[in-house]
């Protein structure tokens, strides 16, 4: 059973982080996402 094709209707950004364990990679990514969402109301939370 084939599924329909996926249509990209929203812009997206891939964020990659490199670093040691417990050095705040997830916290940094969350802060970037939160700041971007606050400055652009079209970004879904």
What do these coordinates show?
It is a single chain. The protein has 45 residues and is an all-alpha fold. The protein is built from one helix and no strands.
Q: Count of DSSP E strands?
A: 0
User: What string, H for helix and E for strand, traces the elements in order?
Assistant: H
The fraction of residues assigned to DSSP E strands is under 5%
Structural class: mainly alpha
Instruction: Kindly report the oligomeric state of this protein.
Output: single chain
Number of helices: 1
Query: What portion of residues is helical?
Result: 25-40%
Poorly predicted tracts of residues: none
Ends apart, CA distance between termini:
33 Å
Radius of gyration: 15 Å
Average predicted local confidence, pLDDT: 82
| Sheet of most strands | none
**Form type:** flat
What key phrases describe this protein's structure?
45 residues; mainly alpha; 33% helix
Q: What is the topology?
A:
Elements (H helix, E strand, L loop, with lengths): L24 H15 L6
Task: Write a concise synopsis of the structure shown.
With 45 residues, the protein is mainly alpha-helical. It has one helix at 25-39.
